[in-house]
Design goal:
The complex is a heterodimer. Chain A has eight helices and no strands. By secondary structure, chain A is an all-alpha fold. Chain A has a single domain, classed as RNA polymerase sigma factor, region 2, helix turn helix motif (Rna Polymerase Sigma Factor, Chain: A, Orthogonal Bundle), CATH 1.10.1740.10. In chain A, α3 packs across α4, α5 packs antiparallel against α8 and α7 crosses α8. Chain A is elongated and about 55 Å long. By secondary structure, chain B is mainly alpha-helical. Chain B starts with a helix and ends with a helix. Chain B is about 70% helix and about 5% strand. In chain B, strands 1-2 form a two-stranded antiparallel ribbon. In chain B, α8 packs antiparallel against α9. Classes of the chains: A mainly alpha, B mainly alpha. Chains A and B meet through α2, α3, α5 and α8 of A and α1, α3 and α4 of B.
């Protein structure tokens, strides 16, 4: 960003459309990654992305610098995602078809290299395991899933996630434990192998 | 610390959420306790399995699409913010400052069209077609399309149909006219037909020496970076090359050079950048990093070579 964030926010609050666009481009990639992982569907992710930033644009006049702009933006994003889940229901299969994007341009399905795998052999997963993992993640309640995504994929600290969800750190830890336990139970057989 | 307490901390340890002292305690405990060691290894395994199974970073094309749609939606949202006072001021300014009668006429035409649209929207419910005399419609030159049968009675022969109407609006004025430039900008960003987007860009390109509005410039830059159609992107890039170089253009070119899937466009963006930074003393960090990345990682060997050459020429 060419201007400090606070200055951009002040300009955007006063109706400077360009300043708002600069703010969008500073954060939208990360926001998009989160909602894409949460919905598992590129089209839904695009719709939610638009919804989030339009809400931010409308609500910016009420932003009072009580938190950082990114935390405030993430609060909107989380609310939109959780509302989306409430509307679409808790579908087991919602993400299953969404990862076709992982195919390369020749149409070949790429294999994933897992981060921090214990052995090189264990870092390549077949599609059956991937489907099971997606199922297991989709079975988490929307809140647990969101906390898990923010922690696991986006690498936010528990304190930051607590700020975003406007709750206590202890609650976030509890959510994270529950999510991990649930996933561990669902995927136990694959973890042993 | 108790064994059970450590078990709780293993998850936090896997996510680097422990302070130095506690992390050390957990580490020492893991060295001595096989049960917790297994749990820890299990935790790392789970992380690996999950990381490899959910989507990675979304592709640039997906984000570009989302940005393009958002941009159009934000413009609409921004336009909604116009108060009646602002609109009146704009009209007043325009009428008083611009003495050309033809342009005033054009503004009145636009206002008239908007008013009629407003009256139409307010006179009928949502989805309700107007009751009009088709002969009047046809005489007025309004095009009819998308005819739909809502209901038909086989016995009585009565039927109800609905159709869309489309009316052409003529706007006269010079290329410098704000309204004409806005129509161009709208077409570049929103028209579904790539041919129309292309024609608008070409028209702007042919008149660019007269100066273009900053929003039109932004639309051209958006098209050059994010339009789905390569022909439109190419045409927009050609127009960008002829504009006065500034930070907005530089950032857009860096983005094209770094993300466009078409190597020819990446090379063209690099060429325009190289041409424009010739006289500059120092290359800024963003450009330097982008060039280094291209020189090391680009799929296209010419692009790699070219980026490397620019870096060497600039003695970076």
């Amino acid at each position: 960003m060419s201007l400090p964030e606070q200055e951009l926010v002040i300009k955007a609050k006063s109706g400077d459309y360009r300043a708002f666009e600069e703010l969008v481009y500073a954060y939208d990639r990360r926001v998009f990654a989160t909602i894409y992982r949460f919905t598992g569907d590129p089209d839904d992710a695009k719709d939610l992305y638009q919804d989030i930033f339009i809400r931010a644009f409308r609500g910016l006049k009420n932003f009072e610098f009580k938190s950082s702009f990114s935390t405030w933006l993430y609060r909107i994003a989380i609310n939109v995602c959780l509302t989306y889940k409430a509307k679409t229901g808790h579908r087991r299969t919602d993400s299953l078809d969404a990862y076709q994007d992982d195919e390369d341009e020749s149409g070949t399905r790429t294999q994933f290299k897992a981060e921090g795998a214990v052995s090189p052999e264990g870092s390549y997963l077949n599609s059956e395991i991937k489907d099971r993992v997606k199922d297991a993640v989709n079975c988490l309640s929307p809140r647990l899933k969101m906390v898990f995504i923010l922690k696991h994929f986006e690498g936010y600290k528990i304190r930051e996630i607590a700020d975003m969800l406007e709750t206590k750190e202890g609650t976030i830890k509890k959510y994270l434990f529950e999510a991990v336990h649930s996933l561990r139970n669902d995927l136990q057989s694959y973890l042993r192998n | 610390m108790e064994h059970n307490e450590i078990k709780e901390l293993v998850i936090l340890s896997a996510y680097n959420e422990l302070d130095g002292y506690t992390a050390e305690l957990v580490k020492n405990h893991l060295a001595a306790c096989s049960e917790c060691r297994e749990l820890h290894s299990n935790e790392l395994s789970l992380r690996a399995v999950v990381s490899g199974s959910l989507p990675g970073e979304p592709k640039d094309r997906l984000i570009s699409d989302a940005r393009l749609q958002l941009r159009a939606a934000l413009r609409l949202e921004n336009d909604k913010k116009l108060t009646p006072e602002k609109i009146l001021n704009r009209i007043r300014e325009f009428i008083y400052l611009n003495y050309k009668p033809i342009l005033s006429g054009a503004v009145m035409l636009v206002i008239g069209f908007l008013l009629s649209l407003f009256v139409r929207l307010n006179s009928g419910g949502e989805g309700q077609a107007e009751s009009l005399n088709p002969s009047d419609l046809l005489k007025s030159g309004i095009k009819i399309n998308n005819i739909r049968v809502i209901s038909s009675n086989q016995q009585t022969g009565e039927m109800e149909i609905e159709f869309d109407t489309q009316q052409s609006v003529k706007l006269s004025g010079s290329f410098d006219d704000e309204n004409i430039q806005k129509v161009m900008m709208y077409s570049i960003l929103n028209d579904e037909n790539p041919g129309v987007r292309l024609r608008s860009i070409d028209l702007i390109d042919s008149k660019k020496e007269r100066g273009i509005d900053k929003e039109v410039k932004a639309a051209i830059l958006t098209a050059a970076q994010y339009d789905d159609n390569p022909g439109v992107r190419r045409s927009a890039l050609k127009t960008v090359a002829g504009l006065t170089f500034d930070d907005d253009i530089k950032n857009a070119l860096i983005n094209i050079m770094s993300t466009d899937e078409n190597a020819a466009f990446r090379i063209e963006a690099l060429n325009i950048l190289a041409e424009n930074i010739k006289g500059e003393g120092k290359v800024d960090e963003a450009l330097r990093n982008a060039l280094k990345q291209r020189a090391e990682n680009d799929d296209n060997s010419y692009m790699k070579f070219k980026a490397k050459s620019v870096l060497e020429e600039r003695s970076i």
